[in-house]
Amino acid sequence: MTRLLVTGGAGFIGSHFARLLAVSADVTVLDKLTYAGDRANLAGVRHAFSHGDICDPALLDEVVPGHDLVVNFAAESHVDRSIDGAADFVRTNVLGTQTLLDACLRHGVRKVVQVSTDEVYGSIDLGSWNEEAPLQPRSPYAASKAGGDLIARAYAITHGLDVSITRCGNNYGPGQYPEKLIPLFVTNLLRDRKVPLYGDGGNVRDWVHVEDHCAAIRLVAEVGGPGEVYNIAGTTELTNKELTGRLLEATGRGWDKVEHVADRKGHDRRYSLDDGKLRALGYRPQVPFDQGLKDTVRWYAEHRERWA
Ligand code: NAD
What we know:
With 308 residues, the protein is of the alpha/beta class. It has two domains: 2-172 and 208-235 and 274-287, Rossmann fold (3-Layer(aba) Sandwich); 181-203 and 237-267 and 293-306, UDP-galactose 4-epimerase, domain 1 (Alpha-Beta Complex), CATH 3.90.25.10. It has helices at residues 12-21, 57-63, 79-84, 87-106, 140-159, 181-190, 210-223, 240-251, 276-279, 289-302; strands spanning 2-7, 25-31, 48-51, 69-72, 111-117, 163-168, 170-172, 195-198, 204-209, 229-232, 236-239, 258-261. The longest helix is centred in the first third of the chain and has 20 residues, at 87-106.
């Protein structure tokens, strides 16, 4: 049985990944439990838990040995927080990634997946990026993730570490900390509060259900090549305004609940990925957006104790 270490596994996506793999692997979760980490996300998942920081090499020397596969989700992940202060982002997303990769090398881990984001490419008005597109990050968050990606690629080339990198679009689904658009808007609307729509609402995002993202990462862990990058696209591109309309409809609220606020500094206009490389390996997103969104709204409505 594969022995899997999921770093950042108490967060939104990492916990879904741990849940997916726990049926076929021995799972250890290592998580610092920042504001975004919550062990409740792992309820019912068979796993061992280690509380700590991926920047701590001594802790990694205790936790990493014996694992065949390490998947790194640990990150500071919210763009707005990176605008307020970038230090934690650089520390965890760059130094933490490098510290973890060193530990994987020291302890002979067979396969590593570095989980990254489409935001490393910057912003694109038309068309889609493939994996050869230049990295032109525009927020401190995206720049720190690009730093982690490049360190991972360098470890594959320089040290022969078998590490693959995934870059995914915006995720949605149950259990996301309510600061990003979908969970923030849903939890505000369920409480009959207003929601803040940035700028003209015309920013476009490609939405990926968290379970599709996790299935794609599992595929990359199985067949991804060393130093290779794999884009993971979703099913539905929407402007934030269109998405807001769907969330209002799903919660039975009107446009009077929408407050137009000043745009985010440096706000990326559009992300769009070409994921042909991963599709050639068999990846297909399975969750239709309308169904996934409906189920997500219902999850927040039924789990008020997790966010209220
Ligand atoms: P999240 O913020 O919900 O979870 C991050 C987890 O990492 C938390 O449990 C936190 O406690 C933990 N963590 C933070 N710093 C740590 C450290 N130094 N050591 C150990 N644990 C630490 O994030 P998420 O949305 O689940 O994202 C997971 C990964 O996926 C991130 O790397 C992110 O960049 C990437 N990603 C996210 C999205 C998205 O839409 N959310 C899209 C593409 C890629």
